[in-house]
Amino acid sequence: MAAFEELLAGSLERATQAAHDHIVQSGELSRTDRERLVRSGWLTPVIRGWYILGHPEGRGETTQWYASYWTFMARYLARRFGTQYCLSAESSLDFHLDRNTVPKQLVVMAGKGGSSRVELPHETSLFTWQGELPSERETQYGIQVMPLPLALCRVLPTLFVHEPMKAEIALRLVAATDIARVLIEGGHTRVAGRLIGAYRFLGDDAAAETIAGNMSAIGYRVREENPFASAQPVFGSRPMRLKSPYAARISAMWQQLREDVLSHFPEVPGITQDPAAYLNKVTALYKHDAYHSLSIEGYQVSPELIEQIRSGQWNPDAIQADTDQRNAMAAKGYLSAFNTVCDSINKLFKGRQAGDIAEQDIQNWYRALFSPSVQAGLIKAADLVGYRHNQVYIRGAAHVPPPPGALMDSMEALFQCLKEEPEPAVRAVLGHFVFVFIHPYMDGNGRIGRFLMNLMLASGGYRWTVIRSDRPRRDKYMQALEQASTEQNIVDFTAFIAEEMAVNWTVA
Predict the structure, then answer these.
(1) Contact predicate 75/23, CB 8 Å
(2) CA spacing 20 to 30 A to 6: which of 42, 51, 141, 267?
(3) For residue 211, what pLDDT band results from cuts at 50, 70 and 90?
(4) Is the pLDDT higher at 81 or at 374?
């Protein structure tokens, strides 16, 4: 009789061959393979007949589900409806603006089948309803969606009231001529009046006149109305075309959240007049400084892992020697990075601008953090060049960082915000938050984010701040970051940083 390891390895090989981006349907595997892999934790049920193939250590985590969400949706919707479906206007708009986000409920209109709701893992769901499908649809990443101009013409007017930032970004991403074409083809005079009024509110009279002129030329009479309830646009009342929804979201969040930071953070004391004494205090606090890693990858099955299982060499518990080596290299890298950040702070005291320093030096901090691991052969030297090339997911978080292709635009938007922001408190709190929101590296994002925070705190004369690592404080820290990421509520995170800054550290 074959050993269990041999049987498990064979089942994993067949599952890997059958899987499409880690999604497996029950008909693609034998019952024996399915049951063996489910019992051992390598297959996680999604709904009846559908599974995620992944490492047992990731089972039950949001990471595994969020990493597979859109692949599952593409396969499931195609299997259920073929091509006779389309995301609703609201879900299509969300998809265009931030495909990485996993919605609490995805709404799909289908050509047949009536209405139904499917409960999915981690309090997510799929709602489908029968309706007439739009003639104009496009397929992105295997999902059928409305083009953005069509989605904007079909969304409910409440979008402009309850989610003005989203509505503004969408309007600034599309060409007014594309919207006018959709409006004319559908004869949507009331929607036209709403979108003309929206563009006038944004200060883009040219876009408003493009729509109004085209509607008038066809003979439509339009009554303008401003659908926004907010006092002013996020990006100001001026014409502006946006190129990247990710960069636009970062810039918009910054402007939207900065007043809450200023309302809940201590007044700026002013940059120190004794740089040497400040740096001495920072250096003395080194041993107290927290060491956290916020970047966690999804677990995947590899051919090497299958062979380890087959040969009996796979040990679910980490080999202690490897763990000790990694910890030692991490500690060595952290000291090097800490000293590099102190050099950056010293540049502040010589008159350099904080945003410019961050843009120039942040890659140096990252290299210092991981150079010992490269020298020890734990990671590749090429991994220290630029930003990550793969998607990352954060354990327990609903927020999914931007895809690799959006990182350059996102980081440029962050640095621009840092350089234009006059208030050190805002630079510190939002700099840290937005950096980990972007998660530009495969690892070390938390550590670099806190270094960035402390550089910005120093620019206003605030004290170097240590984020405590005991469980209650760490949980509060992570929850505040998650709330800021998913709900755009920065108040708790601002208050948390202020609390940590107020802690008096006794240096021996």
Answers:
(1) yes
(2) 51
(3) very high
(4) 81
Inter-residue contact 155 to 136 (CB < 8 Å): no
Confirm if 153 and 191 have CB atoms less than 8 A apart. Answer: yes
If asked whether residues 337 and 481 sit together in one domain, one would say yes
Overall domain count for the chain: 3
Residue 191 domain-assigned (yes or no): yes
Statement to judge: residues 237 and 337 lie in one domain: no
Tell me how far apart the alpha carbons of residues 361 and 109 are, in angstroms, rounded to a whole number.
49
Same domain, 345 and 473: yes
Residues 249 and 159 in one domain: no
- The band of 406, judged by pLDDT with boundaries at 50, 70 and 90, is very high
Question: Would you say residue 439 lies in a domain?
Answer: yes
Q: Are residues 238 and 249 in the same domain?
A: no
d(CA 456, CA 425): 7
> What are the Cα distances from residue 243, in Å, to 169, 236, 347, 411?
10, 17, 33, 14
DSSP letter at 83? T
Residues 6+ apart with CB under 8 A from 270: 460, 461
DSSP letters of 14-26?
HHHHH-BTTEEEG
* Mean local confidence (pLDDT), 427-455: 94
Please enumerate in sequence order all residues whose Cβ is within 8 A of that of 341, keeping only pairs 6 or more positions apart, or say none.
361, 365, 451, 454, 455
Q: Is residue 65 part of a domain?
A: no
The residue type found at 154 is R
82-104 residue pLDDT tens: 999 999 999 999 999 987 778 99
Same-domain check for residues 336 and 267: yes
Q: What range defines the domain where residue 188 resides?
A: 153-242
DSSP-derived letter for residue 397 is: -
- State the helix-helix crossing angle for 424-438 and 354-375, rounded to 10 degrees: 40
331/446 same-domain check: yes
**Per-residue DSSP letters for 159-212?**
HHHH-HHHHHHHHHHS-HHHHHHHHHHHT-HHHHHHHHHHHHHTT-HHHHHHHH
* Sequence-ordered list of residues with C-beta below 8 angstroms from that of 193, at least 6 positions apart, any chain: 222, 223, 224, 225
Domain holding 437: CATH number? 1.10.3290.10
Residue 11 is given by DSSP the state: H
476 and 399 in a common domain: yes
pTM score, two decimals?
Answer: 0.82
Strands 43-47 and 143-145: unpaired
Determine, yes or no, domain membership for 43.
Answer: yes
Angle between helices 4-18 and 303-311 (to 10 degrees): 160
Strand partners, 44: 52
